[in-house]
Hints:
mainly beta
Amino acid sequence: MRIDKDYKGLIDEGYRYKIEGDIITTESLVIDLNKGLYVTGCIEADGDIKSGWSIEAGWFIKAGGSIESGGYIYSVGSIKASWSIKANGSIEADVDIKAGGVVNHGILKELGLPEESDDKTEEAMKLLKEKGYRIVKV
């Protein structure tokens, strides 16, 4: 599937193009535009997703192959590729980023899970010390 300037439903917002709804294809997706593309729904292709500019989705971006962008890749949901994810700009997702192969780009910002407080262990150790026990790490 190819999205170019003649694609039905493409809206030129001046600084980017926009498509209302989802882009779903059983093929590879080639985005052949002269600026970035924002899709309000999801972007899903059974093959690769390739764009010379940025790719942005309101839900998620998923490829059965690789995802490659000449700009940034951003999704409110997740970004998933069975192979690799590569961008000349940043790769950012509010939920998660998963690749079956390599994640290539300038900066990977992993936020991970929030650290849990170890207050109970600290409290137990303090209580044991107060009772005269010696704490030994093995």
